[in-house]
Protein 1
Amino acid sequence: MSTAVPLVTVHAPRRGGRAVGLLRGTGPAGIASAGVIGVATVVAAIGPLLAPFSPTLPNLALSFVGPTGGHALGFDYEGRDVLSRLLAGAQSSMLGPLAVVIGALLAGTLLAVIAAWRRGVVDAVISSGLDILFAFPGILLAVLAAAVFGAGLPAAAISLAIAYMPYVARVLRGAALKERSQPYVAALEVQGASATTICLRHIVPNVMPLIVAQATILFGYAMVDLAAVSFLGLGVQPPAANWGVMISENQVGIPQGYPLPALAAGGCIVAVVIAFNILGERLFEQAQARQ
Amino acid sequence: MNVVPEARSMNTVPAGAGQAAATVPSAEPLLEVDGLTVRLRVEGAQRSVLRDVSISVSAGEAVGLVGESGSGKSMTARAIDRLLPRGAEVSGQIRYDGVDVMTLSGAALRGYRNQVAMIFQDPRAHVNPVRRIGDFMTEALRTNLDVPAAEANRRAADMLDQVGIADGERRLRQYPHELSGGMLQRVTIATALLTEPKLLLADEPTTALDVTTQAEVMAILDDLRREFGLAMLFITHDLELAAAICDRTAVMYAGQIVEVRESALLHDDPLHPYTAALSAARPDIAQTATRLAAIPGRPLSAFEAPDSECAFAPRCPHAQDICRAENPELIGLDGGLSRCARAIELRGRLLLEPAEGGQADV
Amino acid sequence: MLVASLLVASFVIFGALYLAPGNPIAALSGGRSLPPSSLKVLEARYHLNQPFFAQYWYWLSNALHGNLGISITLRENVTTLIASRVWTTAGLVLYASLIILVLGIGMGLLGGLRPGWLDTSVLVSSAISAAIPSFVAAIVLIALFAVKLGWFPALGNGTDLVSNLRHLTLPAFALALSSLAIVARVTRSAIREEAEREHVQTAVSRGIPRRQLVRRHILRNAAIPITTISGITIASLIAVAAVVETAFSLNGLGAYLVTSAQDKDLAVVQGISLVLVSAFVVINVAVDLAYAVLDPRVKLGSRAT
């Protein structure tokens, strides 16, 4: 008579359920990529704790010694354990891009939604401004910022965020314009909902899959660009651990026959970037299919 | 038996003057589709789109092919024009001038394509947007028939005049996006006629146009066809339209031909319940009705229809057990054909108020 | 748009002087202490006692006349310093562009026109190489082709034309690698898409022979997105060249930009930035022009997203 007790009670919160559904739709490649990203995130979070040896203490006697017991990847140019340095370096290598992406997304989404909502002159002004920003390649802006403000991660991250913003804004503006012209928006307006409410509660959530996809793809690019800036010596400064810095530091080892430290750092970057690229593309396809 | 185009003299401008319209069908049909069955590969599975379709068109005759979406009418035209997608399974024969079209290749195939011209539904999608109109119109002439450019352009301009587009030379230099939909469709009709074909395949040529333009383009198509004495297979979802310009009309449902009839008799004396229902469903502007007559249910595609019964049975007001026993064959009746198991008994009564299904008729 | 972009860009580049912490003198001198006579020279040259926009105007008009100021570190004309290095960078970017166009479009064509294993291998290899940043590619190429195999020199510029080419080969490939992948992918999908279009069906139904069909209807139409993506990726090479030049110790504008940024030689940084941004904008404009030529539906100045 009474309702049978279900054997499995599913209490997925609405957001969590959505995320899982999104992920499942990306196929095996997407899920594998998400796995790689998950690992990298975990390492970024607790990397320094995981490192078996000190990532920063130099010991020149061990400079460029190859892999031996306990040191799976050998030593870098200053005699530090490569594996430990990689694990510790994950932090700045992942946090930097995260800051860039968050910055670009916030600014880009804001501008895109405003341009799409107001249309007309406001849209024209914003679009022209964004068009002009397109003239600045990210790395160039970062170098300029380094010259002016001094080398360091914050300046680089901010300049990259500014350089990426127009790409985000362009994609989102198109999607937001489409949403704007949907009948439900007009209905809400008639009912007296304010512009902010409609934008925040309805338009943004509806383009959220696109935002997430963009964020993922952007993370890959940000990672490459930031690592490049660090490689140039204008981002994260040695002796801090960072994958880009590690490539630059250990580059001298290559002609001497010790490519492993530099290649290992490069490998980490490539692996994570591939994962973000694949996942981002799949998410993008999904988001477009829904539109 | 000859599908390679005969050498035409350079002076032959298909102006039509003096060419009598041949509406009397000759003994051997120009196009014969015989038991055509087509299956397409969709998402890994083989899906039936045409089932045992047979139809013939004689020289100078216009045959209409009517059906709703999914009935297979467009697919029939594509099969005839050998435009089926890769991986399509085709059985049965399509004979043009006695030769099996599926066996053609190389020069013979090109010759066939010159003789059979297809006019598509959406002109904007079917004309290359980055090439000029003149280029589009004369491409086949220059490539396949080795007509020099100047001569080809002249013929194209003349043909534009025939379809009612003035100032042909200027139009030839324009791009497709500079022309309206109606004008562009006239251009495609003109282009189709340039290679002096004997058979036109018109796949819903006016559906994508707005209503006023439809009438104009239809008139041009009909006039020119008669003037040049061309055979035509006219595909449409509009029963009245087909009946108006075609000598005979065939009706398709779920990938099969369900009726073939002389157009004049189709409206007043249909031989298949589906045709009657289509006729009845068209609102009559002269009368008021409390409810629009509609056929209950939705049209089936070929792959959804079971082979074991009449495909229309679930929606047919006259359906009885015999209809569900097996897929009916085409029966000859009064010069036409019907794929209705009860065709003979229902003859003459299909347009009356439909009896309840299952009731025994006296 | 071209002019506006350049103006705004130059404004930002110039304005960097004032964004820097401290006063413009400190920025120009890069934190070094200078004798008062040098300071006076700087003040006069940059018109520092004039209002902001006047300074901007002087700087810009000087720049347009080829006077980009003096390098603090090397005490030479920035313009001269740039001129001696610009050919290395130009050569590198040109070489890399050639690789991208020939290999990228070539692979894309093969993949797009012939389905099957060729296509799959194009897709897979481009997915992988797209993710390899140029400096990682640089070290891999050095490790493999220069150190291990000894086919190409690892670093430096080379002396004459032939050795220049040899020295530029690995850098050019490092620069081209990830862009190559994008161009190949876009080419492939553009061709695939065009092949499915209805107007191609029309041409088939009229008996147009396959070779002509591919040339006049598929390739011609696909040229639009292919040209656009090629142009965009080549433009982006300008910035990334700096990284590759540094990795290979090439004496180009990019590497010099980096070192002067490290040295806080602001005049040089501004000068090089101006040149690079201008080149970037010019290439983008060229792409817009090409797009308008290839697609008659499009008016000049607009580019479909």
Protein 2
Amino acid sequence: MSVASTGAVLRKIGLGGITGNRTALLISLGLMALLLFVPLALPGYQTLFRTTLVFVALAYAWNMIGGYTGYVSFGNMVFFGLGTYCAALLSARGIDNLVADIALAVVVNAAFAAIIGFPVLRLKGHYFGIATLGTALAVTDIVGNLDVFGGTGGLAVKQVDEAHFAIYYYAAWLVAAGAIAITFFVARSKVGYAFVAIRENEDAAAVLGISATKYKILAWAISAAIAGAAGAVYARGNGFIDPSIAFAEDFNVYPIVMTLLGGTGTVAGPFVGALILSAVNETLGHTFLKLHSLFFGAVIVLVVLLLPRGLVWLIGLRGGVRTWVKSLQGYKA
Amino acid sequence: MHLLAQDLVNGILAGGILAVVALGFSLVWGIMNIINLAHGAFVMLGAYVTWQLFTSFHLDPFLSLPISFVVLFVLGYLIQRFIINWVARAPVLTTFLLTFGLSLLVVNIALLIWTGDTRGVTTAYSGSNFTIGGITVPWAKLYTLIAALVITGVMYVWLHRSKTGRAIRATSMDIGAAQLAGVRVAQIYSIVFGLGAGLAGVAGTLVSLSYSLNPAMGQPFLIKGFVVCVLGGLGSVEGALVGGLTYGIVESFASQLDFSIGSQHISGAGLQDAVALVVLLVVLIFRPTGIMGRATA
């Protein structure tokens, strides 16, 4: 299938081409621009929105491998965690520079993803998923057992003084914006079409001359680099890192749920999902502390059953409720 | 030499539980082509059912085996019938994500009911053991291994001899042909998923005798169950048993690793998950059909 006709097929089923629905994308970009004013307009909510932006970036990271390439990763928190440790280790050596943090996190993660991806990405579908989960647990084990990483005791990360805290917010915004831009431009390039071809039919893609392993490693390396950058920024904003923070389950689960809700394999989806779920989580978190993971589980179940293509698809849906109901049939045993 | 023998025995004793964990997981995967990520959560539920019965009614864990099985079977049957069946034939990744969501739900409901406190089932025979030829064997673990062998044997005979068992095997071989022969596939799927959950429940009961309980306890068993499946070969009862015992032994030896690189001390006991990953990757790269050799899906 040529590049042009792949796009045509995607448009026909209401996906609006390889970047997803255009209206949703424009709305997302508008909201993203508004978020730039949070430190000035709503200084009290700065920490909340900074965390949201970190999750936006993580959702885009997951979308690259899980959404575009169709390889569901349950181990992306490893890259986030390694990113946080890059910042912490630099800080421990007296280097306190956000640019250095992010640069190191990007390089280390891309390299790590490529090395570990060589065996892991040869596995298909669910084998890959479990192997990534295994990788995540294994790396958590190893980091917790090595003295260099401060063991389970953790490491302090030096911060700027309180008055200049907004710098961490802007850094998180830049990483999130970068993640959106990378996704947009990668998706529209030849590489993006290769990812989608692998997702839709890996064997057919291979027949067309797409080197599946090469592109899968590339997708995972991009994913890892974005997650690592998000981790580095998070570590500086947080001021302290230990294995239970760096490799917390939340950094694994939330990005997946956010991307699913918004729409996998679209440019707007992860942003839409991250914004909605962060807002809901913030509300639930204060009132029902124990219920939010329960709620996230329920969202996954409902979205998979009722909204398999996510909210962005719903915005661009042609044919109303009938098309929607029809899209849900056909997989029953 | 004596230490090696002790490790070997420990590994076999632990492997019995892993075989039962993997058995249910392997059935669901092999027959329905669903990777049930809620399997670990079902193991956890089985353990808590046992704990609850033990605490409230002083019921011996081995007597609660059938109860765990029935409770989890019903839960699994209903989940398949009313939730998973909607997407039973969707691409694998759909059910992958769906069962991931279900596992979050189950774990967090357990957290609400039993809280996150660590609990344990301590029976009269929990601490006692016997020594044979210098090797120490805890009674509870020996009983557990015997129970695991019996359960595996019963499953093997039932799948090969009973009418339902044969219908299940027919479905895994060729859905179309099975349907033509009068097998109701949706019904079989519900039974298989129920069976998978029931076996996870039984495994949970066995687990509760040797491990402490908390709602997050299931995940390591999910990973190990997966590795054991891959190791033994997919969808076969004997594969799960061989895979379980092999993995138990590997893990037992690995936990004895103890060395230093420079000033860094490394102990195998803290690296169980890393061991699981290495075994998984090595098997998938060098022998992707598992030890027992059935081609995987």
